[in-house]
Amino acid sequence: MHQQTSSKSLLIISTFGMLVAFTAWAAFSPLINQFGQTYNLSATEQSILVAIPVLLGSVMRIPLGILTEKYGGRKMYTALLLFLVLPLLATGFANSYLTLLICALFLGMAGTAFAISMTFVSKWTPKEKQGTALGINAMGNAGTAIAAFLLPTIALMWGVEWVFWGLILPVLIMAAVIWFFTPETPSAGTNRTVKGELSILKYKDTWVLSLFYFVTFGLFVAMGIYLPTLLINVYDLSAVDAGMRAAGFVLLATFVRPVGGYLADKYDPGKMMSQLFAGIVVCAAVIAPAVGNIFIFTAASLLLAVLSGMGSGVVFKMVPSIFAKSTGAATGIVGAAGGLGGFFPPIMLGVIRDLTGAYTIAFILLAVVSLVCFSFNKMEYDKKTVTVPKSERAGAEQRSETIR
Looking at the 3D structure of the chain, how many domains does it have? Predict the structure, then answer.
């Protein structure tokens, strides 16, 4: 009974912790118009500034996931939030494009909250409920929407520096709440080395699931952080209007993610992934020739939000099911792939915009990559059983285990 109560409160606290961290992680995106005007930035320079926090937040998910497995979610979560105070404080004093890039890079550590939080929650959740619980936990991604909704207004009222200084207080509050009100994760084997944890890289499942998350979560992150820029460039919207629309995309994707996890608990996640990737291919193919039409773009983008959100939920039902003994490492690796999926597209969008004056080629590439994922899923997971990697088997006997 105690564990059940603890797991429920931990899920709530962990989700709010990710919410705060992701608000900080996405803080540069809705302010990019102001930064662009202040420092006379090109589309490519703006896209780099928007994407740079995603880089460190993605790559560092791997060691942070492993360290969470080794030392516990409570310690790692608290340490991360306390660290974020430094780049938030420094960004408020930044006075050049280079300084902003450095601050944005270190603020990217906020993105590692995903690997810590997902590992933390999965260790306290029964296997048959992990899809639902991890889907709910991932609603902390809504911090991206909060950033888009609130930060432009705060910047207009009190100045850009107070956007970052103002985030310090909620970050410190969540650090205290996590430290004092969550149980520590039971160690899953502190004698395991980093090399041993990373041994899951030799399994095909690791790479295929990483590719899937690269597309599903990467699409969510890329659209969430670059959509304001795209809307301003193509449709000449104000920063506040563009931020509100981008926030709508993020909220929709965030709130359908638990639906994807819940359905993956009940039905065959492999078949679900085939349907979701097919939908992404169609939406990207529709947007590509019609980027200039705001009505077609809006409708197709909202459907992309649903597909990417549900897809992310389904992938993270599959991760702890396949890698039950190395959840931290697998979460870090797959999560890093998803983060990188949000890093490269914004830069690519900016470069394509500078070179061609439009975004058509970017959505054609999205359709092609999603079609590749659809093909891989048909071969690997669109069936009733999956092969569990040898290192993850409960016993020496080789067996197949149903994801469900």
Answer: 1
Q: How many Å apart are CA 109 and CA 55, to the nearest integer?
A: 9
The answer to whether residues 144 and 58 touch, using CB atoms and an 8 Å cutoff, is no
What is d(CA 207, CA 380) in angstroms, rounded to the nearest whole number? 12
Quote the CA–CA distance of 3 and 189 in Å, as a whole number: 20
Mean pLDDT of 107-126: 83
β partners of residue 400: 387
What type of residue sits at position 98?
A: L
Where residue 161 sits, what CATH number does that domain have?
1.20.1250.20
Q: Is the dihedral of CA 96, 98, 101, 106 positive or negative?
A: negative
Smallest CA-to-CA distance from 83 within 111, 55, 110, 56 is with 110
The pLDDT, as a whole number, for residue 7 is 66
Residues 6+ apart with CB under 8 A from 276: 216, 260, 307, 310, 311, 314
Tens digits of residue pLDDT in 23-53: 998 899 888 888 888 888 887 888 888 888 8
Residues 28, 50 contacting (CB under 8 angstroms):
yes
Q: In sequence order, what DSSP letters do the residues of 134-175 get, joined into one string?
A: HHHHGGGGGHHHHHHHHHHHHHHHH-HHHHHHHHHHHHHHHH
pLDDT confidence tier of residue 400, bands split at 50, 70 and 90: very low
For residue 67, the one-letter residue type is L
Q: Which two tokens stand for residue 206?
A: 């690791």
Q: In 10 A of CB 397, how many CB atoms?
A: 6
DSSP secondary-structure letter at 324? S
Residue 387 has pLDDT above 60, yes or no: no
**pLDDT level of residue 198 (50, 70, 90 thresholds):** confident
Angle of helix 32-39 relative to helix 239-266, nearest 10 degrees? 140
Any alpha helices (H) in 182-238, and if so which ranges? 194-197, 204-235
pLDDT of residue 396: 29
Structure tokens at 40: 């006379």
pLDDT tens-place string over residues 233-248: 888 888 778 878 888 8
More confident residue, 390 or 402: 390
Structural domain harbouring 327: 2-401
Task: Give the integer Cα–Cα distance in Å for 60 and 113.
Answer: 10
Report CA 5 to chain centroid distance, whole Å: 27
Q: Which of 24, 257, 33 is nearest to 143 (CA)?
A: 24
Between CA 209 and CA 214 the distance in angstroms is 8
